[in-house]
Amino acid sequence: MSFELWSADSAEWLAHWASWPEREVYAHPGYLSLYEDGQTRAMCAAWRSENGGVLYPFLLRDLRGDPFFEDAADTITPYGYGGAFCWGVDRDTVATEFWRVFDEWAAEQPVVSELVRFALFDDGLLPYPGEREQRLVNVVRDLAPSADELWMDFEHKVRKNVKKARRGGVTIEFDLTGARLEDFLHLYAHMLDRRQAPERYGYSREFFERIHERLAGQFVYAHALHEDRVVSSELVLLSEGNAYSFLGATDSDAFHLRPNDLLKYEVILWAKDAGKSRFVLGGGYEADDGIFRYKRSFAPHGLVPFLIGRRVLQPDLYRELTERMGGGDPGFFPAYRAP
Fold this sequence. Notes:
Shape: globular
Number of domains: 2
CATH superfamily of the largest domain: Gcn5-related N-acetyltransferase (GNAT)
Order of helices and strands: EHHEEEEHEEHHEHHEEEHEHEH
Number of strands: 13
Number of helices: 10
CATH topology of the largest domain: Aminopeptidase
CATH architecture of the largest domain: 3-Layer(aba) Sandwich
Helix content: 25-40%
């Protein structure tokens, strides 16, 4: 078995990713590297053969600094969808050996715990040796139906709002370069403030500029314009077969125009024309909240469980860190990182 560990600047990681028919954006080294900082390294555990391979991208987080001061680390997959992606292999056979070798490497670090945000489609992942738990439900728009069939599958209110946006003069523009980043950032900051969103969603300008630089061809912005002003905007990440709603915002002063319904509808048509088979709208902050119900209106039958995986690889050290940090939150994993 050809098992290897790569950092984000490894040409081998990018080459192995490029050899994969699905080329999932969430496994691209450029995506993982967006989340690197002084205590976090983007890494990938990989296996290669003539017919296929495995890519398990993750963030290795150093525990040696404040407040832990422990010569150890833990791993997590970044915002989005991850896991041990695989293709052209016998999943069960490879999984046994892959995780055995990975765990040998993890013990040397040592890695205390592992948290995985799983991709939505199990057939492209190796079986996971740890606990799996459903957290939320995500909405996935199947793009196989014709444009007319897609239209009729939307909830009535979507069709009504799309027509209203068009009557109001809203138009849609697609941008593959990020030329309207300033408009996007303005709307995004406005949305964060309005919703009092968690701090983790407050991405910097540099974050988006790195997306433009490192993920060229793997993203598109869609902008809704009214009277030459951007009133709604969405950043979509692109894999070979899937398009993912990543981040977006709408000007509250333009809500009455319903620009986001038209925006989502045109993104769906754009993704279909681009040869994508699915558009992943994601889920809400909480189960069955308003954001989730809005997304579901575009794919009432496209509900897919969103799962996380977790493992404690060093039980004694995990317990010691948790106690040192005040006992943690039993609902948070790893407990020693609870806010």
